[in-house]
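so my prof wants the structure for this chain in the tokens format not the other one, which i didnt know existed until like an hour ago. anyway here's the sequence
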Amino acid sequence: MSKLHLLHGTLPREVVCTENLTPFLKLLPCKGKAGISTLLDGHKLFDASWQTMSIDVRPVCPEDASGCIVEMEQTVNMVLDIERSKRPYDNPIPRPVPTEELICDTSKPYSSSDACYPLDILSAQSWTLSDLFGRRIKGSCLATNILGQPTESLCIKVPHKHRIDTSDGSIERIGSLKNERCYVLPSTGLFEITLPQQDSQAVVSRPIPPLYASRSFTGHGQERGGVQTLLTNPSPDTTISFVYFETLPWFMKPFIHTLKAQSITSLSPSQEDIITSIYYRPALDRERGTQMELQITVPPASTVRLTYDFEKAILRYTEYPPDANRGFDVAPAIIRIHPDPSRQRPEAEYLRTTSLLLSLPTPDFSMPYNVIILTSTVMALAFGSMYNLLIRRFVGADEMEGYDFGKVKARIRGRLAGLRDRWFGRARHRDSKKKTQ
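here's what i got, hopefully its the right format
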């Protein structure tokens, strides 16, 4: 185990679509054809308000380090809007609720047959798996453990006093966590869960996360900037320790001497007490990015502000993306919270901050276009004139076949004589007027 390494791969900007879901399903034992993976419909998954997909690969070795195996865990997280998910495929446009289905507050003085003040929804909406995902669970996949005993394939967290209707053939068990119910899915057939409309006052309380993290840019201008990360420990009596890991692109050059960590609460421990160790690997231009790992300890009920400055590099014009003015995506920071058995955290937990959008000095990409147009115009004029002179044949007018040069001379002489007579005629007329006067 001492020779193993923990690797992180980041892709800060990648639009997830159905092309990512298909290879993801092919990694599953049942290829998405059985078990809860049959609910992963591309239309429903990527229409969610928020969704993410992840794959964790880790080695699992016994104590004697013999017969190590590789374990892979696939995770899909979704945040669904029940009302939006229940819209049919053939009529996805939201429309107003019909008048006869509105629940009005009759205590309002303006309440009448044509005026309605809707009441707040006091009960949770009913839903089924078919409403949310457009399909039901088909059979089970790997529904037994090593001993051949049936295992829980599906667990949901709802208050125990809520009524849940399931399909025939499933076995319900009480989960190990609070307000958790687990079901052993039938090996064949379709499995459906129905949650009727019930009182919404009995809700499942959310557990308090071990750490809050917020990351943003500071400063202004196109030359330098800064990064600020706020780390909050919500526990009132327990100190939390974790590893803060960042990978920065090579064109974002941090200044480590500006790295500061200070508490913004009443208790102000020194920076040495907050950052216990640092690992830093500088970037190489156009080869690798910057790697920075910090071992951080946050006191109870405290917020630590981590800041550092950086310099923005100037790229070649060929290194900019087509939408250069949008900016460059910076990968989120990864936080690994150390396990704490006393706090019901037997394994390490991972958190990720939001990605950042970095604005770099952007050249005027219209200038090459203007230069190309001007250069092409000058070259066309120069080449056209030279080409005209080289291939054109110059001959005298009298050498042209079928051309009577004598007629041209006579026509020119006639025109000149006409002009002369007109001019001298006007002069005689003026002289005669003078003599008459």
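also thought this was worth mentioning. The mean pLDDT is 81.
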